Amino acid sequence: MKVIFAKAILKKENINAQEKELILKAFKKGIFIIIKGNNLPSNSELIKIYMTTIWGARRIVFLIDTLTKNGFFLFYRSKNDLLGENISIKNNLFKEILKKYLLLLNSALRNKEYEIIEI
């Protein structure tokens, strides 16, 4: 299994090395909730991971390739963030940012602007 971090999304989410390690650790545990999304690539689904850190509760979202089980990092937000408090397709902000981040991910994959971590 692999985790793919698009450089543009890491920058938008302001992820440092310590947070990246926490995200990887949470992903490895395999404890998540499948959530709905709009216009997802075929053979994919969105997952949400709940995490508690020394900085408070966090929400992580990945796009998962259902064939390879590889994870594409999308969001790392505080539970108190406008997006983090309601990561759901019913939240218009989530739908809007998800659309933008899927475009960023697609662009990063095309341009080979990503980091792959084997887990």
Commentary on this structure:
With 119 residues, this protein is an alpha+beta fold. The chain has helices spanning 7-13, 17-29, 92-111, and strands at 2-6, 33-35, 44-53, 56-65, 71-78, 114-118. It has a 6-stranded mixed sheet with strand order 2-3-4-5-1-6, with helices on both faces.
Q: In what range is the share of β-strand residues?
A: 25-35%
Number of strands: 6
Terminal CA distance: 6 Å
Radius of gyration: 13 Å
Quick synopsis:
This protein is α+β, with helices and mostly antiparallel strands and 119 residues long.
Write the layout of secondary structure elements.
Blueprint (H helix, E strand, L loop, with lengths): L1 E5 H7 L3 H13 L3 E3 L8 E10 L2 E10 L5 E8 L13 H20 L2 E5 L1
Keywords:
119 residues, alpha+beta, 6-stranded mixed β-sheet
